[in-house]
Amino acid sequence: MSLPTASRQLILDCIRAVTQNPSAYAKVLRTYIRRGGLGIQEKLKLMIERLREYDADVVECAPKELPATIAGQLALSGRQVFVAPAGLPAEWLAAGFDWKIDRGLENSEIERAEGVVTAAFCGVADSGTIVLHHSSAEGRRILTLLPDWHLCILYASQVVETLPEYFDRCPLPPVLATYISGPSATADIEMTRIKGVHGPRFLNVILVRDED
Amino acid sequence: MNTGQPVLDPRYAPGFPIAALPVLRNPQLRKNVAHATDVIQSERARLIAEKSDWQELRSAASAIRNHVLENLGSYLEEFEARCTAAGGTVHWASDAAEARAIILDILCQEQASEVIKIKTMTSAEIQLNPALEAAGIHAYETDLAEIILQLGEEEPSHIVVPALHLNRSQVREIFARTMGLKDLTDDPKALTAAARNYFRQKFLTIPTAISGANFLVAETGSVAVVESEGNGRMCLTLPRILITLAGIEKVLPRFADLEVMLQLLARSATGERMSPYTSLWTGVTAGDGPQRFHVVLLDNGRSSILARPIERQTLKCIRCAACLNTCPVYRQTGGHAYGSVYPGPIGAILTPQLMKMEFAQSLPFASSLCGACYEVCPVKINIPQVLLELRSQVVNQERGQAAWLGDLMFLGMKAANSIFASARRFHAAQALCRIALHPFTRKDGWIHSLPSLGAKWTQTRDLRGLPSQSFRQWWAARAKEGR
Description:
The complex is a heterodimer of chains A (212) and B (483).
Chain A: H1 6-18, H2 40-53, E1 57-61, H3 66-77, E2 81-85, E3 98-102, H4 107-112, E4 115-119, E5 122-124, E6 129-132, E7 149-155, E8 159-160, H5 163-168, E9 177-180, E10 185-186, E11 194-195, E12 202-208
Parallel strand pairs in A: 1-12, 2-3, 2-4, 4-7, 5-8, 7-12
Antiparallel strand pairs in A: 5-6, 6-9, 10-11
Chain B: H1 16-24, H2 27-49, H3 54-70, H4 72-85, E1 88-93, H5 96-109, E2 114-117, H6 121-125, H7 128-134, E3 138-141, H8 144-152, H9 168-179, H10 188-205, E4 208-211, E5 215-217, E6 222-227, H11 231-237, E7 241-247, E8 251-252, H12 258-269, E9 277-282, E10 292-298, H13 302-306, H14 322-326, H15 330-333, H16 344-354, H17 372-376, H18 383-401, H19 408-420, H20 423-437, E11 446-447, H21 455-458, E12 463-464, H22 471-482
Parallel strand pairs in B: 1-10, 2-3, 2-4, 4-7, 5-8, 7-10
Antiparallel strand pairs in B: 5-6, 6-9, 11-12
Helix pairs in contact in B: 3-12, 9-10, 16-18
């Protein structure tokens, strides 16, 4: 609902009075690079390089090795309690760990979990960015925020080279989106980069080579 | 009023040359500012070198922002309609007082006694925190730098890294004192962890948050916030009620325009390819995030800036602060001397205009017009051009106010005009000055201090002494000898 106020009219009238010549959106010149020129292997190499530059941990695996790779990463983390979005594929829920499936978990339950496992919507190699659109396998926004450790499963086929290529992959704009580029960080004290202020301190990525 | 604290209200702040003096005599502060701006600048330069289409991105961003301003009314209405359809409530505030009243009204209805805040310069612009405190509502800043400033009762000195004027031992002192942590070390890791622990429970329990916005998307009614620490995501997802305060110029036509802006913003602002977290949300989403969402669209002088053809470009700004980091004046003085929450080159043009040219008239002169700010600006704001325009307005104001004959500056300019108009008068003036300035010229060839009116120059800069011979005299003498 919008509240019709005198100020609304005042501001819009003031703006209209001084913008008499509207321009066409299509006239905006866009000569920047839309599509990158890298081959698949180079593109994935760049994605991994950029993720690592932001202190993210990356491992690769073949599609059929994925469940075992997830189990391995969970074990390696030394953690036991994980949250998972309700739509996470069942075969990703490795045995031997405590899984809290998000069917309306309380914040305090998510907060107590030691890690979270999610899918992703897209990866952008140019900036090492992971895109979440918060589908049922990517989870509510809070799931990837409160736990200290985030394991994200990214398929090679989801990786694009440039940011505009990601936008080309959105037939409709997302209602919710989070772009993650490395773990939470700050440089507010003497420009010294410190990992993990309020968000997860550890970002782990499994890159599934489904395009080989 | 002099409490030792910098005054960041342009209505009360002293003029820039006066406010800059204590900073110039504070070597620690200058060292801190130089270090921080150097680090960001070198990272920025490295990342921009790897973008072969950087100039094309700048041109597109500039064109998009120009287009927005030319069609601002319809984009704001489109944003309002989409945001409303998605469950948000849109408010319009003509000025700071109205924005504060709207926010206080919402908080009263929600019976809020505390709010958590994401860093927003716009809320500092409308002096929201003091108004909240006066109404008995405590606002917790949650960005690390803002926490440092709030706990230490310091003022921001930069748009993006507002505590860059403090070093680690100063931060340690503030945290140890205010959080009761006597054993805290000055390791930035320990300081960051202290902030994380201090705020975890607040995030989980305080049900109301206030944010700014980096971008509003007209096409979808979405809001985008770019941040590093995750405090923003906490504020955007944990509370039940969210209030977003945004200047009316923050709107973008379409979702896809973010493909340009997001490539430019983090690289320009913090020297990162992307900031760790960019959040985009649209109204209210069932089961995810705040269920009551308000947007306050703030004018506060912006629509009057829109009216002026040269100054309009000021509103293209996306608040990356690249112009601050590169500015030779800002790098010497830091932010406090500008007497505004918007310091540096962008502050020097934005602040006086937001004040409708009634205050902060010294700021357009706080520049050497070197043009470095224009060169780094990701949306190509020609800051020197706007500075010159504002300077001429200030001079016209002063002319309008001062009695011409009593105005020494005016008389001086008249005299200079007449001297420069004639070679004979110019040579005579040279000879006269050589004699008059001689007693003030030190052995190093520089004049460090002049009496009376001349002090206006030497207060802030040295003056080269006049050489014993002018070029024309030397040329004439050389020609004679050569024969």
